[in-house]
Amino acid sequence: MQADECQNLADVRYQIDLINNSILALLAKRQKYVERAAQLKKDISEAPAPARRAQIIEKITQEAAQLGLDTNVATAVFNSMIDAFIALEQKNILKHANT
Ligand SMILES: C=C(O[C@@H]1C=C(C(=O)O)C=C[C@H]1O)C(=O)O
Question: Would the pTM of this model clear 0.90, i.e. be above it?
Fold first, then answer.
């Protein structure tokens, strides 16, 4: 069902819930690669990788604009996601360092 075919909020929220499930599955898949990145890093100081982050944000800003996705929404979501994954990396690197 397209957004403009939704007749009420329940229709809209059903579709949003479906999209949430898709996003969650992709996040779980993404996490596996972030965990592998953490394994390949030797020190907790390597977790943030600001140049890589800047590259991602620049790329997704351009792609968001092409998709008609609000660029503020895109950058906020990606910055928040990357912050959370950096924290996970740091936790994993520390856990590995202590074992
Ligand atoms: C996954 C990496 O580590 C961190 C997490 C990133 C991400 O979630 O995309 C990107 C860069 C780093 O902040 C990486 O260095 O590539």
Answer: yes
